[in-house]
Amino acid sequence: MSFTVAIDGPAAAGKGTLSRAVAGAFGFRHLDTGLLYRATGMRVLDGLDPVAAAEALVPSDLEREGLRSAEAAAEASRAAAIPGVRAALLAFQRDFARDPDGAVLDGRDIGTVICPEAEVKLFVTARAEIRARRRFEELRAGGAETQFETVLADVRERDARDMDRADAPLRPAKDAVVLDTSDLTIAEATARAVQIVASRR
Ligand code: C5P
After folding, report:
1. Considering Cα of 115, then 120, then 20, then 159, what sign does the dihedral take?
2. What is each CA distance from 27 to 35, 81, 117, in whole angstroms?
3. Which candidate, 37, 171, 19, 168, places its Cα nearest to that of 103?
4. The whole model's pTM is what?
5. pLDDT in tens, 60-69
6. CA-to-CA distance for 188 and 179, rounded, in angstroms?
7. Ligand 1 pocket by C-beta < 6 Å: which residues?
8. Which domains does the chain have, with CATH numbers?
9. What is the pLDDT of residues 2-43, one digit of tens each?
């Protein structure tokens, strides 16, 4: 029997960390669905049309260099507003969610569109300044030269685009548990997420 955990929320809220922790704690497989949109964005940067780019994705695209860059993120969020792109990526995500070992998917529309029947839905969020600070430190640790204000502006722009689009906008599902990580340590946030999943198993 499959068991699906949907983890949604804005950029840099801690979805990735929590998803990996939940997957590890229960032996579930994990899919970072943002990578599908980033890989699409990379192919757009290569010169492809966004819908053709999404339709042409192959597994090795998810391992390309540069997927975590700000350029790939910006291109991803533009492509993500196009219904044909979202449609092209739907079946792969739904198949993944049906993994008999259990699955954790993180993204923006997992609980609302991709897996409305998920057994657990978490909406992970944090204040924009805090998310930008985390992303800034991550980028700096990776050797990127950037300013905090630039990262904050990027986060705000991406939030606005993700929340305002007509197709699958970012918002909590009606039955999602909202987890604000602004004032939590990683250990605290992780413990809470694992506890919520454990209570539904
Ligand atoms: O999560 P990540 O920052 O890697 O996602 C990059 C972009 O992909 C997001 O800003 C969003 O526009 C898009 N995305 C989406 N739906 C998802 C996952 C990501 O629209 N399920």
Report:
1. positive
2. 21, 33, 20
3. 19
4. 0.94
5. 999 999 998 8
6. 11
7. 11, 33-34, 37-38, 73, 76-77, 80, 107-109, 158, 162
8. 4-198 (3.40.50.300)
9. 999 999 999 999 999 999 999 999 999 999 999 999 999 999
